[in-house]
Description:
Blueprint: E1 7-16, E2 25-28, E3 35-40, E4 44-49, E5 52-57, E6 61-64, E7 72-78, E8 82-89, E9 98-100, H1 105-121, H2 126-142, H3 149-165, H4 173-180, H5 184-195, H6 199-217, H7 222-228, H8 234-245, H9 249-271
Antiparallel strand pairs: 1-8, 2-7, 3-6, 3-8, 4-5, 4-7, 6-9
Amino acid sequence: MTEKFIITGIKRVILIDKNEYKDKITKFTTPLPSNELILHLSGESTVNFNGKVLKCHKNIIRFLPKGEVNKYIVDRAEHGDCIDIFFDTNIPISSSAFVIEPKNHTTITKLFKKIFSVWVAKNDGYYFECIGLLYQIFAEIKKQNYIPKNQYEAIKPAVDYINANFTIKKISIPNLAKLCNISESYLKKLFIKKYGVSPVKYIIGLKINYACDLLLSEMYTIQQISEICGYNNSHFFSRQFKEYIGISPTVFINKYKYSKQNFNFLFINHNH
């Protein structure tokens, strides 16, 4: 991937859910008018793009370069959801498609969901905010977030505990430090070094990302999602959701439904 480039425009940001493409195999033949940066939120597929085979699953980022398409086939082992950003740059980022499995996937997932919510909300200044968020995504992609194995092992008990229990109402940071047999300050230092955020923000990020997935499933009310994610009340949940994503849960799901209907309309007309 090219180290330096300028984003000259964003054309669309869409969320494609698991029901958009019913068939196991989909073939595309038309040229790509823009680059595409795709975050796979779920599912598993094999993509053959111009002869390059890409394995895609949850948390994988797929890049497709704009231009002619000789072969573009998606073979789905499991249908899933993804967020797709269509954008242009002043110089080619790469002449071929590629995938990345970022270590800091929690941060990147949050950024993808935020750029989608900002794009569909279309509030004043949304376009410039989306440009900034896309630069942030590329910045996170370039980060290695490397820490020595012994330091990661030191916080691994806390990471494992958080990942398994982030939906409970409150996770005690002192208890996490005790679990790792290190001080709270050292726990925080290693978390920031590894994930770019403190343990508290790491936990909140997991909660909000999970809440987005529950909202997109359209199976639960906001009150139910608040409870599932471990919040004491839905008002605090909504406030924290808006702080992290940029819009309220209600606006998020309404904009998603509108975007989905609009995408289906465009897709149907494109194929006619």
